[in-house]
Design goal:
heterodimer, A: mainly alpha, MetI-like fold, 11 helices, 0% strand, globular, B: 250 residues, alpha/beta, Rossmann fold, six-stranded mixed β-sheet, five-stranded antiparallel β-sheet, 9 helices, 38% helix
């Protein structure tokens, strides 16, 4: 009990004293996970739209792969992204291994299937009649897509929340491709693991509380945006 | 659009030998019909007779398997130009309103036509007023009653100032008093606008109050046409006669 209490006190001390190291780690965590979510949305939404609305040979197979990838273990993603970014790997020339960019790439790989799969399912679930009505109103292809995405915005926000939740909480990929370098690639999850391995449980508890507050705050903001009803 | 030989200047839309096959089942069997400018044409038939498929085909939402469609005497190409789509409005059985407020729903088709904001506002306000739903303008569409939602859907269609309006069983989801109110309002709007309309229904009485003439559809074919009196005085095959008898009794 004393350990937990010490951890909570330490968390508040770290938060309110404005500890520069913790502040830097928190900011990097937010930056990296936010960017990864955004990239996965930019890549995943068009792919989800194609899979959700178009019919082509192999579609079901691709959808099965996407859905299976939703539960891809972050450490496996970390391993494969490492292999690709390693100096002798296919993208070794980019020299981005053990950088925040590498973590963003790995986290995007984790979040992308969630965005693709959930947006495809939401689009597929839109009523055939609503789609016909939008066309009947004289929408061109672009207007049609835009309106349809507007109809599923609740599900899209849920996909973004799921994607962000998956990447901010993962540790395996960040550790593998970022290397947990102090002041450079150390994020809240990797820092927590390090403190646990050192037996510094009070600091680890403090970092985990900060991580939870961060995840909760971002998710709460996204949820509020999701629940905001237009014109009501 | 290709020039063709059609001489009847009063015909706005002509369908010739329209056949639609879906999942190896023939839904429409060489259906031909003319819709004259300014007329209100009714289409009655039992469930599954192909009414909605015919409506979707002649409203250019679905392509027929075979047959020809003419717009003001010109044969329509396989790829329908958007300018022509913009001359048509459709109201479906369900109001099918989008996740927006009433004003935004009515304005939607006008936005697709890239009309100036001022004109959109004026048209939307006019049609909300015409259907008695001005007070609901800012209400979310998904919180409306069945009657209010269908009025919104009708206002949305009329706001487009279409050359042809298609109504696919617009009253089927409503209760009797709401249908009565809507019929009165709709009749007034038809008289004031003179818009060419095709109304699909399985209710003989409602359709008879709105339309100039009607078509009776059974098993994917047009079996009879004319005014109610003309249709009832004609000789029909047994199936059509039996359907008409049921229709009149209801």
């Amino acid at each position: 009990m004393e350990l937990i209490w010490k951890g909570i006190v330490e968390a508040f001390r770290l938060i309110f004293s404005g500890d520069p190291e913790v502040f830097g780690i928190t900011l990097l965590t937010l930056k990296v996970s936010g960017m990864a979510t955004l990239i996965s949305l930019i890549l995943g939404l068009p792919l989800g739209t194609v899979i959700g609305l178009c019919r082509f040979p192999g579609r079901k197979f691709i959808l099965s792969i996407v859905n299976s990838s939703m539960g891809l273990p972050p450490v496996v993603v970390g391993l494969w992204v490492s292999i690709f970014l390693w100096r002798s790997g296919p993208f070794g020339f980019l020299n981005i291994m053990y950088t925040p960019t590498a973590i963003i790439i790995a986290q995007s790989v984790i979040a992308c299937p969630l965005i693709i799969g959930l947006s495809a399912a939401a689009l597929q679930q839109t009523s055939e009649k609503i789609r016909l009505q939008i066309l009947a109103l004289g929408a061109n292809k672009f207007q049609y897509l835009l309106l349809l995405l507007g109809e599923i915005k609740m599900s899209l926000m849920a996909a973004v929340i799921a994607g962000f939740g998956a990447v901010i909480s993962e540790v395996g990929a960040s550790m593998a491709v970022g290397g947990n370098i102090k002041g450079y690639t150390r994020v809240l999850t990797t820092a927590t693991v390090l403190e646990v391995s050192k037996g510094q449980f009070d600091v680890a508890i403090a970092l985990s509380i900060i991580l939870c507050i961060l995840a909760f705050t971002v998710t709460a903001i996204l949820t509020m945006l999701q629940q905001k009803r237009q014109g009501g | 659009m290709k020039e063709t030989l059609l001489g009847d200047r009063d015909t706005i839309l002509r369908a010739e030998d329209i056949t639609v096959v879906k999942n190896k089942k023939t839904i429409l069997k060489e259906v031909s019909l003319d819709i004259k400018k300014g007329e209100c044409l009714g289409l009655v038939g039992p469930n599954g007779s192909g009414k909605s498929t015919l409506l979707k085909t002649i409203s250019l939402l679905e392509k027929p398997t075979s047959g020809r469609l003419y717009w003001e005497g010109q044969l329509l190409p396989a790829k329908i130009p958007m300018s022509l789509r913009h001359k048509i409005a459709i109201v479906f059985q369900e109001p099918l309103l989008l996740n927006k407020n009433v004003f935004q729903n009515v304005a939607l088709g006008l936005k697709f036509r890239r009309l100036p904001k001022k004109e959109i506002k004026a048209r939307v306000e006019y049609w909300l007023e015409a259907f008695g739903i001005s007070h609901l303008a800012k209400q979310h569409a998904h919180s409306l009653s069945g009657g209010e939602a269908q009025r919104t859907s009708l206002a949305r269609a009329f706001a487009l100032n279409p050359q042809i309006l298609f109504l696919d069983e617009p009253f089927s989801a409503l209760d009797a008093p709401t249908i009565e109110e809507l019929l009165v309002d709709l009749k007034k709007v038809f008289e004031s606008t003179g818009v060419t309309t095709l109304v699909v229904s399985h209710n003989f009485r409602d359709i008879n109050r709105l339309t100039h003439r009607m078509l009776v559809m059974l098993d994917g074919r047009i079996k009879a046409s004319g005014t109610k009196e003309e249709i009832l005085s004609q000789q029909h095959d047994q199936e059509t006669q039996s359907f008409l008898t049921q229709l009149v009794q209801n």
